Amino acid sequence: MAVRxxxxxxxxxxxxxxxxxxxxxxxxxxxxxxxxxxxxxxxxDELAREIADVAGVTELAVVVGAGNLYRGLEAxxxxxxxxxxxxxxxxxxxxxxxxxxxxxxxxxxETRVQSALDIADVAEPYIRRRAIRHLEKRRVVIFxxxxxxxxxxxxxxxxxxxxxxxxxxxxxxxHGARGVYSxxxxxxxxxxxxxxxxxxEAIERGLRVMDTTAxxxxxxxxxxxxxxxxxxxxxxxxxxxxxxxxxxxxxxxTA
Length: 255
Hints:
This protein is α/β, with parallel strands linked by helices. It is 37% helix and 17% strand. A 9-stranded mixed beta sheet has the order 4-3-5-2-1-6-10-11-9, with helices on both faces. A two-stranded antiparallel sheet has the order 7-8.
């Protein structure tokens, strides 16, 4: 049960076929809909239907954040021990993963939640080969608890898991943004939309797409990142080969 070679995004597009395997990175904010925090059932159900639809054409894994429930960095800034705060954030991602799993199964998808922290009563432990086997059986695998280590974000977890399972790309569904901008469009009216750029450009320009560790990991391993707005069927459109949002890649990934 070895990881098959990654499929070139450009080759997949030229052949007119969807990616063979992808990892979807969801922010916690994508689950809260119009609420100021927490979980919005209608938003999650809509997202689950879209993910279930995509799972019918490609092998799909998901990493979910926890910004809708808890932010370790903010707690750390308030005086809490950083490692403790990060572990609390990891547990919050488990809550989001279980909520997403429930919605996905009601939408008809078969799922598994794998946690980097040992929570055997509610999730499988993360085992790379088992995760790959689930994907081969067209189960949606939701990776929870980040990397299982403090000081690493769920962005880094997404990059790490994508590489471990041999995903062809990371898909980032952003809440309230159509892709990558030169600045925060919510605070800077002059911010310009960027349709494509390289990982190095994203790092050097300080664009807040993913944290630097995650971007460097993707750059070093030629893993493209597709950033697009959540909703409106964008996930299926990206998987099917449409140019939606921003592509971050080293060379041929932007072809």
